[in-house]
Amino acid sequence: MEFDTVLSLRKSARSYTGEAVSEKEIHALIHAAEESSVGHHNDKGYALVVVRDPEVLKRISTEGGERVGKPHMIYEAPLLILICRTKDVMETLEGFDAGIIAEHIHLKASDLGLSSIILFGFIRLLGKDADYLKMLHLPEGVSPILAVAVGHSPLDGKKRKEDRHFTVIER
User: Fold this and answer.
1) Is residue 40 part of a domain?
2) What's the predicted TM-score (pTM) here?
């Protein structure tokens, strides 16, 4: 797909059909994440956790509803990719790096004809002792920074509105 087309299709989807994301598509999304740049080439500072277990996905939504009154924290997407810090992360770069990794996943999802949304709310609101984290059995020192929910959506293949215009200052 042409890059400008990928950019025009890239948007945040808040509804999904429930159709599974294929193994081939998951592999392509992970490959795109691994192609992203991280500061000081610190690949060891990050881990990706692929969550497609319906019980874990449901737990995130249920826990969100119970603890913060906000159900559907992942919009019922069938796939969630957690971008996690490890003990080797450079704290001054982690948010920047995680954003780049997330955007690579987001762009590849558009390229594959999938929809996605970058999520931070449930990670921040549910905290580091959340039940869903216990279900994941993450290694010590690994914890989420950002997440990208991915799936098939009624928005697949529809271009984003062309209503975005930043102020551009040239000197």
Assistant:
1) yes
2) 0.91
Of 41, 121, 128, residue with least CA distance to 80 = 121
As a whole number of angstroms, the distance between CA 46 and CA 48 comes to 7
**Count of domains for the chain:** 1
- Quote the domain boundaries for residue 146: 3-151
The whole-number pLDDT of residue 64 equals 85
User: CA-CA distance, 50 to 109, in Å (whole number)?
Assistant: 14
Domain contains 170 = no
* CB-based contact 94:145 (threshold 8 Å): yes
For residue 156, is it within any domain?
no
Give the residue-averaged pLDDT of 22-31. Answer: 98
Q: Domain of 51: which CATH number? A: 3.40.109.10
In angstroms, the Cα distances linking 97 to 70, 102, 161 are 27, 9, 27
The predicted-structure confidence for 41-56, as pLDDT tens digits, reads as follows 888 999 999 999 999 9
pLDDT of residue 171: 94
User: Which residues are CB-contacts of 30 (< 8 A; sequence separation ≥ 6)?
Assistant: 48, 50, 81
| C-beta atoms surrounding 17 within 10 Å | 14
Q: Tell me, yes or no, whether 161 lies in a domain.
A: no
Q: Are 60 and 78 in contact (CB under 8 A)?
A: no
